[in-house]
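Morning, I've got a small favour to ask if you have a moment. I owe you a coffee for this, so here goes:

…
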Amino acid sequence: MKMRLLIFVAATAIVVLNAQANELSDYDRQIVASCMVLEAGCDGAEGLQAVLNVILNRAEGYLHRMVPETIKYGAFSCMSSVWRTDAPDYSPLIRRAQNEIGAYNKALRLIATMERGLLWDNTYGATHYHATYIRPYWVRDMSYITTIGGHHFYTQRGREYASL
């Protein structure tokens, strides 16, 4: 009986830890929403969703990796004033994004949809994007996927999304 209880407790702990690893904290939600708004707030819900999908694709689908391994890593220029410092403080950027009330609320709704596993990848697996009015050096190593709003979306060559 004690062995069954121990196995049950251990299995439950593993499930709980896994669930926690696939959740965003409230602060991480605010950081992700701010990145979405500051990168594509003028592109409407479709543009916000595209940025969210790129963040998720870069984290390889692991929600708990979205902030530390993509946003804090320095992949998004809107966050550069923060990730270039030794003690990152995202609150000024969060406040700036929250001033765009409509876009910020849309971003939070999209994040909630993603956390429920219901977010469609409108970028077809993109891991990179840039504004349509520039051409960064790194595009030569990428495969173009689509354009959404004011951004072109790409993936690394060899990682193309299988179309249905």
User: Anything to note?
Assistant: DSSP finds seven helices and three strands in the chain. The first strand starts at residue 128 and ends at 131. Residues 4-20 have pLDDT under 50 and may be disordered. The beta strands are 128-131, 142-148, 151-156.
